[in-house]
Predict the structure.
Amino acid sequence: MSSRVCGRVLQRLHTPGSAPAAAPPGSWSRISSPSCRLRAGPRSEPPSRGLAVTGRGPMNVFNREMKKRQKNWAATLQDGHQYDYLRDEVGSRVADRVYDIARTFPLALDIGGGKSHIAEHLNKDVVERLFLTDVSEKTLEQSRRTEIPTTCVLADEEFLPFKENTFDLVVSSLSLHWINDLPGALKQVREGSCTIQTLMVGGETLYELRCSLQLAETEREGGFSPHVSPYTAVTDLGNLLGQAGFNMLTVDIDEVQVQYPGIIEVMTDLQGMGESNCAWNRRSLLHRDSVLAAAAIYKEMYGDEDGSVPATFEILYMIGWKPHESQSRPAKRGSATASFGDLSKISQPTGADKSQRR
């Protein structure tokens, strides 16, 4: 957006009574698959952001204790189920990819599974038993019952308390993007299972919110701070899986776009999902003027004709297999029986063919 347009949008905010109107109760949000209803949610106070921890290394990007508190707080909301629409949607998409594998997994692990958003879409014909882990005790207490026998384990995704070769399948949905040492976590998974199917959000997630906040803070405060968490780029996923020791890699991208009445509803739902920013370099304070400016910019740059604004979630799928002797392997160097130089002669008739024609 040009500075002239940005200035015109921000100038409207100086007019008394020009604050964005609140969304009417019972507003509807449109997702690319099923529709889901959004409401304002309870006025509970989110966890404070003033934790101080020493000894942070270069691989320590996120405050894991803060993420635990955020998820625990979100799990205590009286109507917290209304914020599960995104996890339910992407959980069903992970389950679809599990069904694509024509085999039964005796024992599976769901990392950061929370309320069993993946397991509720599976059956015993695919997974016979399931271990469900999450860093949030409150979230595990609300795990949904499924036909698959499930054991809930309170565990950090970065330090899984399982022995090697325990599981036949490991799945994860919307959890790995909060891990500090992602390569180390993937290596733990490879040592404990034969295949992994994970889903995490990618670098283009919430780009509308990120851009609006940056423009608003730059205009109002002369600079901006990161309010949206950094995410992994899709170009790095193949290398991460390869370095962790997985074979037969598959990486693909999907997008889920949700419509909201405004920027306030976007941030409210992120809090209700337990997906608020927990990076160490986050700024805990967001000034009211910056929020109002960001709301105007959001609607000006990305708003639809009906007055709603979109929020895009880039979903990254990763599938990898632990090396095994039964897997197909490339032939040894020098074992070829034909030369690429002979390919041009394949379509040419041989001597025997010429004699038959005569």
